[in-house]
């Protein structure tokens, strides 16, 4: 047993020495090394992460949200009811991706893009954060009487993230949602909020994630701040994300501005995201 402990200690010392040597080489030669895997998936829980699909790959994602758990065993904690969203996105390179999606919630189609403007690096002159822009147009199709211009909602987010260490990553998301059609004359077409999200690794293949959006500006008294708490599980060719959230909709205008669940009476939603990557 003592021999095994000594071997493990020697191995850890060697890893530490290698890390110190690498840092010295980076400082001497002014090398910048990009930080990778700030998050494991392109979503944190509900919110977009800074990550893009890998270059020249297609990523197919299924986002499934069950019904409210408030009826407990009557509908098996919401499993008798569900809304589902599919999206397909393509990574052109390590800076740009484009995708299309469709949700059964309000029969909504969307087109979106994510651009990484800045990548966090380590070295003598480090870049402290990664910065990206996510934009989307949503087309609601459940109301057949609406003209096209009134069906549109536009989403714009800045994604500012930092991998603090090997285990902890954080992200903030200034967000604007513009609705062409609002519920009443007093409602605003432009809604601002600030998203906050993070990830804490538990093992090499699992992590605990969270995200929430803080409203900026006036909201009606019925407004509920959205949040999601989830667990990432990496299983070879895909990432499986389990979660509980207070928003049943899985696209931006729904989970940011139209959360409906509260802890009272267990009015919350179980769900999962699962993604599969295809190399081209």
Describe the structure.
The structure is a single chain. By secondary structure, this protein is mostly beta strands. It is built from three helices and 14 strands. It has helices at residues 2-29, 148-151, 252-257; strands at 33-34, 57-68, 82-91, 96-103, 108-118, 121-122, 130-140, 152-163, 168-179, 190-201, 206-216, 227-235, 238-245, 269-279. Strand 3 and strand 4 form a beta hairpin. It is globular and about 55 Å long.
The overall strand count is: 14
Low-confidence stretches: 4-12
By oligomeric state, this entry counts as: single chain
Overall shape: globular
- Give the SSE order as H and E letters: HEEEEEEEHEEEEEEHE
Read across the widest sheet, the strand sequence of neighbours is 2-3-4-5-7-8-9-10-11-12-13-14
